[in-house]
Design a protein that fits this description.
CATH topology of the largest domain: Cytochrome Bc1 Complex, Chain D, domain 2
CATH architecture of the largest domain: Orthogonal Bundle
Structural class: mainly alpha
Largest sheet: none
Strand content: under 5%
Order of helices and strands: HHHHHHHHHHH
Distance between the termini: 59 Å
Low-confidence stretches: 8-13, 22-35
Number of helices: 11
CATH class of the largest domain: Mainly Alpha
Shape: globular
Number of strands: 0
Helix content: 40-55%
Amino acid sequence: MTGRGTDPRTIRSSAHDRCARALVTLALACLCAQGRADPASDAARGRLLAEGGRCPECHGAQGEGGTGSDASASAPRLAGQRFDYLLKEFRDFRDGRRHSDAMDIIARDDDDEVLDILRYYAGAARRAAADPPPAAQGVRRLFEEGDAGRAIRACADCHGAGAEGSAGRRSPVPRLAGQVPAYLERQLRDWRGGARRNSAEDVMNREAAQLTDAEIDDLARYLSNL
């Protein structure tokens, strides 16, 4: 014990935190009273849950993805991602098919709350497309046509001509357009090296196995600007 009184700033900060939590709880109660059959209501509840939780710490205030210089810089953009893919990946984290220090813990959250959060992010505004940088134009053929000589399928075959993603034949295929480039680079390297293995029939491990470092970097830049 130091004998000193409690710092008034600490008291104010604690009171502010309690007030913020109370407001979120009240808002959630109002939304629940509207009935859970309304998807818009679920997404609104999801926004409150996301903003009141830890999602923004890595994924940004609006789910725009990591933009910092630490590990969160490679956190993916969730805004505008397919709901079915977000749900599939969340369940893979929960069931041990995919791993992340943060997500392995967060994936223990209540399913109802998670569904609402994912609905919110899936319906959030996507980033406006930009012109691909000149350095990435040479990889456009790899994305659109693949490389038969190395048995690499065109990315567009599964992810769509605009990299918008799809329901897929066996599993949801993610939207890649506008994704955080650092995230794309890391995932392609993890697919290539085998650190990640949760695609249907290991298709991504086979496709990424033949990619060079330069191709991975160029693909990431190209896709992030679609």
